[in-house]
Each structure stands twice: as structure tokens, then as C-alpha cells.
């Protein structure tokens, strides 16, 4: 049984855990050893001047040429951070364009910007999968995202027994979500165990389903 950790900031190795480690543009990353994949993107917190951002975007574009860089991101919009929101939007759109060009999914960072993310998805007419990481929306928001074809990723918030998060996971189709550790120091298996209880399925069935989800959106066996 293999567990997929779709979004982590840790570098770790395990025979039965397949990781997607998030790295910053220009940061080095390792060769592929069958279980270590990567995502590269310009996060809203790291937005700088337009000139500097354009250089960072060039580094993202170079990184995604590697087969084991499977996602662009995390990228998105955040109204709680201090970086210029107009520049956030510009950089987000550039990364959407890149995702469409190279046909790779996007890991989405969404903070207080649900309406903006939904409108951007509709306006851009993007075809690449968009994965809302560390998802914590309520059931009404979740149904809107499901309607527009979003994919979701849940992390340690499942372990905190937040009712709206658990209700959203219960509602989401099993072929439309992933699990992640993000900054969580514990095991991805803890999160799989909790998710299997919420979905009322065996953990081995959940692990196989998420593995198939990964294969479907990345094309990787």
C-alpha cells in the first residue's frame, strides 16, 4: 500500500510514501528516485517587484521542464498578506498560462479569495486541474468548487475535528481529493486514517483511490 503526500515542505524518504515537495523558484531539487516528485511556483507571500517576479517566473518555467516536477505552485491569491494584490493577480495568471502550455496541474493557495479564484477559473477557461490545498471551505463553498471542476487537498485540519472541514470532505467525490502534510510534522498516514473514517471507507481502498487520482491528473504510473 502506497500513500501519496500531494503537498509537503519536508524532504523525507519512505518506501511506501510518494511525496510532492513544494520548492521555491530557483531552489535546487533532487534527481528522481521513484518516490520524490516536486511542485514549483511563485507563492503570493513571495511576490516582489514586477521585474524580480518576471525573473522568478522564468525560473519556474525552466523547472517545470523536468518530468518529476509534476505541479505548478503553490500559487494563487491571498488577501491577508501584504504583497500587492494586483501583482498577485498578474503572477497567478502567468502561472495559469504556463500550466496550460505545459499541461500540468496547479496547486492553489487561496486565502479570503474564494470568489476571485472561482472567477479566475471561469474567465481563464483553463483545462489543467486546479488543486485547492489545505482546503477548509464550508459546504456551500465546496459545492461551488465541485460544480466548476476543482480538486481538493486536505491536511492536518482533518485532525482538528473542524466540523465544516469534515462535512466538506464527506461531500466531495472520492476521485476529487488528495491528502497532504504541508507543514505538519506527523505522518501522512495519520491524515489518511482520519480521512478514511470520515469517508467511511477502508484505508487501503482510500490509498488506492488517491493513487489512481494522482495517475489520472499527472499521467504518471
Helix content: 40-55%
Low-confidence stretches: none
Q: H/E order of the elements? A: EEEHEHEHEHEHEHH
Overall outline: globular
Q: Which strand-content bin applies to the residues?
A: 15-25%
| Spatial sequence of strands, sheet with the most strands | 1-2-3-4-5-6-7-8
The oligomeric state of the chains shown is: single chain
- CA radius of gyration is 16 Å
Count of extended strands: 8
Distance between the termini: 14 Å
The average pLDDT is 95
Largest sheet: 8 strands, parallel
In DSSP terms (H or I, runs of 4 or more residues), the helix count works out at 7
Strand-pairing-aware structural class:
alpha/beta
Q: What report would you give on this structure?
A:
This protein is of the alpha/beta class. 40% of the residues lie in helices and 20% in strands. The protein has 7 helices and 8 strands; from the N terminus they run βββαβαβαβαβαβαα. It has an 8-stranded parallel beta sheet with strand order 1-2-3-4-5-6-7-8, sandwiched between helices.
What are the SSEs and their pairings?
Blueprint: E1 3-8, E2 17-23, E3 36-40, H1 50-63, E4 69-78, H2 85-102, E5 106-111, H3 114-124, E6 130-132, H4 139-147, E7 151-154, H5 163-171, E8 177-179, H6 188-199, H7 203-218
Parallel strand pairs: 1-2, 2-3, 3-4, 4-5, 5-6, 6-7, 7-8
Helix pairs in contact: 1-2
Concise description?
The protein starts with a strand and ends with a helix.
Using brief descriptors, characterize the structure shown.
single chain; 221 residues; alpha/beta; eight-stranded parallel sheet; 7 helices; 40% helix; globular
